[in-house]
Amino acid sequence: MQHFDVAIIGLGPAGAALARQLAGNLSVIALDKKQQQGNRGFKKPCGGLLAPDAQRAFIRAGITLPVQVMADPQIFSVRTVDVQSGFTRNYQRSYLNIDRHAFDLWMKSLIPPSINVYHDALCRKIWRENGLWHLTFCAEGAESTVTCRYLVGADGANSMVRRVLYPAHEIRKYVALQQWLKDRHPQPFYSCVFDNATTDCYAWSISKDGYFIFGGAFALKNSRENFEALKMRLEAFDFRFGEVVKSEKCTVLCPSRWGNFVCGKENAFLIGEAAGFISASSLEGISYALDSAEILSGVLCSTPDNANTVYRRKTRGLRVKLLGKIIKNRVLTTPWLRKWIMKSGVAHIPLTAEKPTTAARA
């Protein structure tokens, strides 16, 4: 049975960043559901926007994004729509428009060959015995079992590692539904949509490489019906839904309290969305995936005896920041507070030819 210092489950942005940073310091095995290249295999449904905090993580690492992960066009404002009040406002945002699948594959390509990476792999079983973590996985047509000192769950919202560590843990979940449609809008735009009649979270849209991507996070019950109902309600705001090219869905976490953030125990660690590190106000998770991976790499490379305690302490600032996002979420999803903020016009950037209108006036 082969033994490693670290086993990483999942090679999204969190796992790929950690594997890259551990190379040359520890022996590492990494398992990922995606294939090594191409469009086959697992794809993360995502609007594909890279936030400023994620950009700063790449600056710290001295990494620049290649042109093949970028999408067209680059949009620097978000059209925020409150369906119930009828208000529409434009706010400046410095996101980068990316191809999420190409981005994930590029992140994996940065992992040095010294890391033992298994693509298109499925982890079947995880258990702890005699002070070591054991895991059984299927890859390359065979089943294997390895042991490791440190286990890292970077396996997203439905994290298997989190379920093993915290079988009673509960966190608010939504179904993220997303469609790619042929774009019929005269001008590309990015939007953030609030409508308490269909979801107590929010929806989004983004123009990308000739497509119009529309998605939203909905309660598990009647999610498809609410998704379609929201599309109909947005026609009053000049949203033009053309032919559907493909549909996607996944589970997304939305933390609602401090206890939703779990860092791990017994030499097992959680990073990214597996730890609950995702913004409750925007569902943006790449920034926190990169930040938590950077923190954990520093902890593991120093190999302290109390690694879990050190990691928990070093992520406190990150968790406090995410607690602020929970508060922001409660404000934005409360209709009267959201209406008051949008009606005030604070930070709104009117378009040159824009007339102060609401859906009701239209």
Automatic annotation (TrEMBL):
Domain FAD-binding: 138-165
Gene3D superfamilies, A to Z: FAD/NAD(P)-binding domain
InterPro entries tied to this protein: FAD-bd, FAD/NAD-bd_sf, Geranylgeranyl_reductase
Molecular function in Gene Ontology: FAD binding
NCBIfam families registered for this protein in UniProt: PRK11445.1
Family from the record: Belongs to the CbrA family.
Protein name: Protein CbrA
Species in which this protein is naturally found: Kosakonia quasisacchari
